[in-house]
Every structure is written in structure tokens, then in C-alpha cells.
Amino acid sequence: MAILKVCRLGHPVLRKVAEPLPRDEIASAACQKFIDDMIATMKEYDGVGLAADQVYESKQIAVIEVAANPRYPDKPQVPLTTLINPKVTPLTDEMEEDWEGCLSIPDLRGRVPRFQSVQVEALDRSGNALNFVASGFHARVIQHDWDHLNGRVYLDRMRDFSTLSFLAEFTRYWLQH
Ligand SMILES: [Zn+2]
Fold it and tell me: 111-139 burial, b for 16+ CB within 10 Å, e for fewer?
């Protein structure tokens, strides 16, 4: 496994709509190794999700996992999941606002409104169909990474930038609120 380089905001690949992955390519050794590398990269940088375009591959693949994570303490755990060609549909008009960060936008946090509950349809890394409902932080992580696959970042979703903070200031001034 390899730790991949994560591209930062400003690289054009982050603003492209990623290409769908043909189902018969999922089982290939190259694709399976790429997914392993994405997972290793997400874990290395304590991310809770990583989209393929964040590692310079404009493909509809994202990995998510919320384990015990120092960047996001006190969050409910989400099992390791690979989402290929995901389709995300809001199940409610209700939005929740919470803090997000992004490995492609280092050292910043901001409050982002997200749908509280979403339906997720995707393929897993075996090519099997996934169809499940995610809510709360799980839904937030999925919406963040689904946005990446569609050329968007969390800054695009913020209502305004009044909460946008560097990590040190976030910890100092916002974390207790
Ligand atoms: Zn991100």
C-alpha cells in the first residue's frame, strides 16, 4: 500500500465532475490497489473520508470511515465503506449545521449546513449494490465526499464565512461552544 499525495484547493481536478467507474473495472488489480491506497491515505492523515479526485484521480470513488479519530473526537463511528458511483438523495428538508474540515483545505474549519438524512445508492468495492440511509454525522461525511466527486468543496456550502477559522483559533475560541 502507498500513501498518496493529497491535492489542495486550487488544483483544477477538485473542480471537475469525476467520471463514473465502469462496473467491470472495479475488480481489476489496479482499481483494488487504488482503493487500498485511498484507505491508507485517509487513515494516515486522520481523515473521515477521501474522494478520488483529492488524490488526482477524477473517478467516482470515495472511502469513508469514522473510527476513534483525533481530528473528530466525540463523533459517532462509521464503518469503513467504499462508495463507487454514489447517488445521494436528501430525505428531508431539514438541515443541520456543524463543523467541517477537509484534507484538501488544510488547517481550516467552518460550519456547514447539511441535510440531516440522506438515501445513498452506490456500488461497493466488490461491485455489489449498496442502498442505505445515513443520518447525522454519517450523512454529513457522505455529503462532503459526494460534493468532492461533483467538483464542490465545503466552502461552497457555507452560508457565510463568519465561522471560518484556522484550527488553532477553532480550538481556542469555538470548540467549547
Ligand atoms: Zn474534503
Answer: bbebbbbbebebbebeeeeeeeebeebbb
Please report which confidence band the pLDDT of residue 112 belongs to, taking 50, 70 and 90 as the band edges.
very high
Q: How far is the CA of 9 from the centre of ligand 1 (A)?
A: 10
User: What value does the mean pLDDT of the chain take?
Assistant: 95
pLDDT of residue 67: 85
Cα separation, 155 vs 172, whole angstroms = 21
Beta strand 105-115 with 61-66: parallel, antiparallel or unpaired?
A: unpaired
Neighbours of 143 (CB within 10 A): 23
pLDDT at 75: 79
Distance 48 CA to ligand 1 centre (A): 9
Decide if 111 contacts 92 (C-beta within 8 A).
no
* Secondary structure tally for the chain: helices H, strands E: 3, 8
Show contacts of 44-47: CB within 8 Å, 24+ apart.
Answer: 44/3, 45/6, 45/103, 46/70, 46/71, 47/71, 47/103
Neighbours of 58 (CB within 10 A): 16
